[in-house]
UniProtKB/TrEMBL annotation:
Region spans: Disordered: 225-250
Domain of life: Bacteria
Segment forming the signal sequence: 1-28
Keywords: Signal
Protein name: Dienelactone hydrolase
Length: 369
């Protein structure tokens, strides 16, 4: 065959590729902006056509287009709200937020009051009660926002929660917890779940006081315990005679994903009442939240929950990226057990797990390209 004979189909193929490139939109970049709403700052990640750049926030470096205009879409975009862990922020989960934005979502990351990197004074049950309400208020605020409200389809919303953010996600899915469940869990499983039960109690004196508080409630009839211990929180209690009633506190929540979630405090009965899809990612070397009492507890009792896998050889914070070494060291120093990245962990597992999380939301919500 002559060179001339090859040339015609080659030119035709080149022309077709050029035409296809004109008809197929280029892959979206990730825009990143911060809104100040009634409950505080909210970081938004979203598709944009503006070029990304390296942005540095202290030790964190991310890739995004700061304050870029959102990419036009044929219809309003779906929202995923991400709930950070204890004393956290939006930055350590930016890789997942970016992956969701690249898939067509708008991602909102609130800074939970009293349980963030600037102020963790109310971490634990106080913040656990408030976090789901903050997400609902955020959705309402975005619906009323003059610029973002018209860009969002908020009848079906996704939620992702990491660590303490798992309480946010499970409560919004309809599961229920109470502080007494935390106390009873730690009465029975203190040594096996030390990282959870002694969270925030680093000294011998603090741990002794914490254990004394657990023991103080031992064998006391519930009727004699204070209501803040016994009151159920999170999802709705089914009315009498209506066991299949929707347990969600907000019916707009349509899908939830969880990464190494706080979950031991949720009752098995309420987990079984969940009706929406929930995806659960664990880490098999998590020493901060022992998987058997947390991520696997959800999967054992929730019929609509699906395992998104466990990071093999991964620890609690190996699900996050970026995670600078100096931040990892500081955070691990505040853990009773575990907390450092596991040496030799294969980061490709995290990338694959994030893709599964994105796909889980995509199947449920079908975002605009």
């Amino acid at each position: 065959m002559t060179h001339h004979a090859l040339r015609t189909p080659l030119l035709a193929a080149t022309a077709l590729l050029a035409l296809a490139s004109q008809l197929t939109p280029a892959a979206a970049q990730v825009g990143r902006s911060t809104l100040t709403l009634a409950n505080g700052p909210v970081v938004l990640s979203y598709p944009t056509d503006a070029p990304t750049q390296s942005l540095r926030y202290g030790p964190f470096e991310i890739q995004a287009a700061p304050d870029a205009p959102p990419r036009p879409a044929a219809a309003p975009r779906r929202l995923v709200v991400m709930s950070h862990g204890t004393a956290g922020s939006a930055l350590p989960d930016q890789a997942l937020a970016s992956a969701l934005a690249e898939a067509g979502f708008v991602v909102a990351q609130p800074l939970h009051a009293g349980d963030n990197y600037q102020d963790a004074s109310q971490a634990g049950p106080v913040a656990f009660r408030r976090r789901p309400q903050e997400v609902v208020q955020l959705i309402d605020a975005l619906a009323a926002h003059p610029a973002w409200g018209p860009r969002l389809a908020l009848d079906r919303v996704g939620v992702h929660g990491m660590s303490a953010g798992g309480v946010t996600g499970l409560a919004l899915a309809g599961a229920q917890w109470r502080t007494l469940s935390l106390v009873q869990h730690c009465q029975q499983h203190l040594r096996q779940d030390l990282g959870f039960c002694f969270n925030g109690a680093l000294t011998t004196e603090q741990q002794a006081a914490r254990q004394a508080s657990f023991d103080h409630a031992r064998d006391v009839p519930e009727a004699y315990l204070p209501p803040e211990l016994t009151r159920w929180q999170g999802g709705r209690t089914p009315p009498a005679g209506q066991p299949d009633a929707d347990p969600r506190p907000d019916p707009r929540i349509a899908v939830v994903t969880l990464a190494v979630p706080v979950a031991a405090i949720f009752s098995a009965e309420s987990l079984a009442r969940i009706r929406i899809p929930v995806g659960v990612l664990g880490a098999d070397r998590d020493e901060v939240l022992a998987p058997d009492f947390h991520s696997r507890h959800v999967l054992r009792h929730c019929g609509t929950c699906t395992s998104l896998g466990e990071l093999k050889g991964g620890g609690h914070f190996d699900v996050l990226w970026p995670w600078p070494p100096e931040v990892a060291t500081q955070v691990a120093a505040q853990q009773v057990r575990g907390g450092l990245p596991v040496p030799g962990f294969d980061a490709a597992q995290r990338v694959a797990a994030q893709a599964r999380i994105v796909e889980f939301h995509r199947r449920a919500l079908q975002p605009q390209p």
